Amino acid sequence: MSEKVKLEYNGKIYEFPVIVGTEGEKAIDIRELREKTGFITYDPGLANTGVCKSSITYVNGEKGILRYRGYPIEELAEKSTFVETAYLLLNGELPTKEELKAFSDKLNDHSLVHEDMREFFQNFPRRAHPMGILSSMVTALREFYPELKEGGEEELNTTLARLLSKVRTMAAMAYKISRGHKVIYPRHDLSYCANFLNMMFDSPVKPYVIDDDIVKGLNIFWILHADHEQNCSTAAVRLVGSAKVNIYAAISAGISALWGPLHGGANQAVIEMLKEIYENGGDPKPFIERAKDKNDPFRLMGFGHRIYKTHDPREKIMKKLCHKILDKLKIKDPLLDIARKLEEMALNDPYFQEKKLYPNVDFYSGIFLRAIGIPENMFTVMFAIGRLPGWLAQWKESMEDPDGKLYRPRQVYVGPSKREYIPIEEREKSTATEST
Ligand code: CMC
Question: What are the chain's domains?
Fold first, then answer.
């Protein structure tokens, strides 16, 4: 018999079933709470609320564990490729050789972007942020490619491949156009990651030489970002998707949510912070002090996480990758030294220790991206390309979920009670809104 939790109120006992996940995590099923008791729950930021059951990604924030479909992130980063990991997230199992080839071929088949879309790219202001361009362009894809209608598997797989492949092409296109350079088309003979690097950096005057270590590094970077259960952008994809909008609009919502500096935008914010420290003499101490000051809104970017109360397992891999790539490219980046100093100081500071604030995935990722030539305003776009398989897998799961419903949270209303309308002539000056 399944476990129950009892709630006692006014001498009456209400029972609610307990749901247990495969890793032992327990949740109280409160679906009947309001109906039975009249209560709702109050949980700002949904920090204690499970909004779905999911079999995609497991995170244990106390132990620093991250697994996709049961496979530890460390093993995937070492042995898998981004395309294989994307297949795993979308389909639940690692592919056979044939399945992987068919999947890669499909990505290649859908890598081109409609030529008319180039007009859009060209008409964004030169200084437009690539995240804004990307979210607009993903919404616009719906007007160029068929919307999912029948729900057939083949049609679904094609749409997922279309998004995975085209978002990467569009990201590189946005970069080239922003620089006023010739757009480089995708090539069928290159792997997913090599293709992206080539589209970003090849030029008619200087052909890009593909470096296997950089390609491997980019695979690792994107594998680390591929999914992270119900994070802010994924929750946005599920929430917007729950209204049954088209898939492009749901993914575009995820891109917009990711842009925020508390989420994916942190990778750009970290580099900006490290640069500021560098320009101010290289001592992180004043920044640590600012982060601790309750009266200063400044936070140490790349530090802290809603779930991880220990080292983020992705950060450990990212840090190693940074060192490897910088060594390989013989780059001496002073920001890496500052980052290491800052990390050490923060980890030894009682404020960060007590609050269990550790470096997260974004702390070192910008240094890696800088080293391979990605400009700062493209950092969050890089995160978005990586997170895409996760968003798509989570969207697909939510569409197939028998418990799935329109997201529509409740609130505790704390505004004025009913009052009578006051004609404008009778309003006190202090309460009246002056018309302009
Ligand atoms: N620097 C200084 N203090 C911090 C930081 C930080 N980076 N992060 C949290 N705190 C403090 C915060 O002030 C609060 O203190 P108090 O209890 O005294 O009010 C306490 O720690 C708890 O913070 P919170 O904001 O309630 O915790 P949260 O779970 O809502 O926040 C977070 C998680 C990631 C938004 C936050 O740690 C943060 O703002 N970090 C910096 C931005 C960042 O690196 N974001 C990337 C997250 S990982 C990748 C991703 O999700 O995209």
Answer: 4-60 (2.20.28), 74-264+377-400 (1.10.580.10), 278-371 (1.10.230.10)
